[in-house]
Amino acid sequence: MVKLVGIEGGCLTIEDVNVLDGTPLLDIKPYVPQFDSRENCEIGWFSGKVQDAEGSRADERFK
Fold it and tell me: Can you tell me the distance from the alpha carbon of 62 to that of 26, in angstroms, rounded to the nearest whole number?
């Protein structure tokens, strides 16, 4: 999990990431309280979609 602290154009500024310096961060997903556990988090844009999270499955792009 990371903390999103800013968005400028197509660039996301994050904190609290657990990667090596200079390595790419390949995938960012929304925080989902049913799957993740961290205190004082907000789910932002995902709040209207969280009820569908448990029934969702990857499409044919992910095999």
Answer: 14
